[in-house]
Amino acid sequence: MSTTAAEDHSDDLAEFGYKQELDRSIGKFASFAAGVSYISILTGTFQLFYFGFAFGGPAYWWTWPTVFLGQVMVALCFAELAANFPVAGSIYNWSKRMGSATIAWLGGWMMLTASIVTIAAVALAYQLTLPQIWSEFQVYGDGSGKYDFAANAVILATVLIIFTTVINALGVKLMARINSTGVFIELIAAVLLIILLAANITRGPDVLFETQGTGTGHDWGYFGAFLAASLASAYVMYGFDTASSLGEETKDPRRTAPLAIMRAVIASFILGGLILLFAILAVSDINSDQIGVAGLQFVILDVLGNTVGKIFLICVVIAVTVCCLAVHTATIRMMFAMARDNNLPAGEHLAKVDPKHKTPIIPAIITGFLAWLILVVNIRQPQIFTVITSIGIIMIYIAYLLVTVPMLRKRLSGEWPPKDAKQRGYFTLGRWGLPINAIAVGWGIFMAINLLWPRKDVYNATEPFHWYLQYGAVLFIAVVFFDGLAYYWFVQRHKTGVLESHAAAARAEAVPEPLQPA
User: Fold this and answer.
1) Which of 183, 213, 415, 428 is in the most buried spot, having the most CB atoms within 10 Å?
2) What is the pLDDT of residue 382?
3) In 397-424, which positions are buried (b, 16+ CB within 10 angstroms) versus exposed (e)?
4) Which pLDDT belongs to residue 3?
5) Closest-CA residue to 92 (of 83, 81, 77, 76)
6) Smallest Cα–Cα separation from 392: which of 477, 471, 317?
């Protein structure tokens, strides 16, 4: 990138009151890869296929396009925001400009907490794949003990979190290089997997309308089962905003980030949908109980055999690795963005950018430690995976709503989009903006309720049966939301304002005025 271009982007950032400190080195593919690796179809589909199939049978496949239709509306809103506000900590900065200071803090706080939880949830996916590649990866016990699965998952996840912490501390260039390589392997593996599964189809598409009696016992029949099964798809198709969260490190971010967001969500939908489709059509016995237990890992080994199947499972491990790396990276940017506005305790330390690596090292370490702590606290809970995953995803859907709802209010009042957006060549939804934004809000509310619903068969299906497991997601999120709000209102809001050490040159001469609370 030329010096002139670099200066232009620095001036661009100065419009938002910040000086350029992070390493602006991410290109188009690396930006796209950041969004793809966060969604990570090979991580999500292999992690959750068993869940969706167990609740919905083969007809669960229809949850994939359903969730996509809702999430692509959110992605379109985010693409428009990414073009106008290419700033680190996308959700936080977007909610700050669409809503009030309080809404911004809550959006950032929910996304930050959710992302830390998500790092732990993604890292746990090692347990679902590594022992199936080689039994020696079952380090703790032999897999038959009550706590063997959960304890071993924590051990493997700890190794992964240490890796992502170190890589992120060494700088965005190394992170982007590893992430882009991993995504390239993931995309090639996904295409090859689709081809091989398609070549081994044993039944027709009419199986996609079979429910296998999964609606029996539900108050709403199969619709109730379908709603539960849809969680498997909802748990996968998010995180596309990561491309914009790296906006301060991306070349030509106003054009690169919006396209990266849309390409990431569309590519993930197509590839993930075809993998799920052909897996259902190719598995030898569609009625096997193992599908709802061992998931896609079982299907791949069943259809492709042990040797070829394990090669693809190795690709899944690579996908899980870069997924965890991308989530960790996005979390660091969120912490940095909030700290730079003095919106977190010890903001000056959390916002410090290492002069050599040009990355916030302290947030990298703290984020990794907190994610690891979540694992350790839950080490003796066999249902650790479902509860932790659910908590993270629900908070992300709520954080998304804290952007799309204020955005819709601005649209209705004629304050959005900016009048000069089209003239300046920014991505804009034009006359479609209002209906797309409205659908995005409606979808977000619907899915947040669906995710929050304390179904016993989802959150506490097996022993030990404890009320706090069934209601764990609701309780944890309520505590995070209201305690966070109380902390901000009584403590942090009185300190809020861009730190002088991070303010743009034009503003550095005076102490910035604090953001005005709602």
Assistant:
1) 183
2) 57
3) bbbbbbbbbbbbeebeeeebbeeebeee
4) 42
5) 81
6) 477
Q: How confident is the model at residue 462 (pLDDT cuts 50, 70, 90)?
A: low
Reading phi first (left if > 0) and then psi (alpha if -120 to 50, else beta), residue 430 is in left
Tokens of 465: 């049966």
Q: Is 266 exposed, middle or buried (0-12, 13-18, 19+ CB in 10 A)?
A: middle
Q: pTM of the full predicted structure? A: 0.91
Provide the token pair at 242.
């990561």
In a domain, 265, yes or no: yes
Long-range contacts of 14-19 (CB under 8 A, 24+ apart): 14/504, 14/505, 14/506, 16/85, 16/87, 16/93, 17/498, 17/503, 17/504, 17/507, 17/512, 18/87, 18/248, 18/340, 18/498, 18/502, 18/503, 18/504, 19/502, 19/503, 19/504, 19/505, 19/508
Report whether pLDDT(9) > 60.
no
Burial of 468 (0-12, 13-18, 19+ CB in 10 A): exposed
pLDDT exceeds cutoff 60 at 518: no
Measured from the Cβ of residue 431, the count of other Cβ atoms closer than 10 Å reads 7
CA distance 271 to 250: 26
Give me 350's structure tokens.
Answer: 């959390």
Tokens 């919905």 appear where? Answer: 56
- Phi, psi dihedral angles at 503 (to 5 degrees): -75, 150
The residue assigned the tokens 């304890």 is 151
Residue percentage of the chain with pLDDT more than 70:
92
CA separation for the pair 279, 337 (Å, rounded): 41
- Work out the widest C-alpha separation in the chain, in whole angstroms: 71
Do 499 and 343 form a contact (C-beta atoms < 8 A)? no
Is 234 in a helix, a strand, or coil? helix
| Domain CATH number, residue 281 | 1.20.1740.10
Domain residues for 158? Answer: 32-502
In a domain, 193, yes or no: yes
Nearest C-alpha neighbor of 38 from the set 295, 330, 257: 330
Q: Coil, strand or helix: which one is 325?
A: helix
Number of H helices, E strands in the chain: 20, 0
Tell me how far apart the alpha carbons of residues 169 and 236 are, in angstroms, rounded to a whole number: 27
Asked if residue 225 belongs to a domain, the reply is: yes
21 occurs within a structural domain? no
β-partners of residue 250 are 26
| Number of domains observed in the structure of the chain | 1
Token readout for 9 is: 């982007």
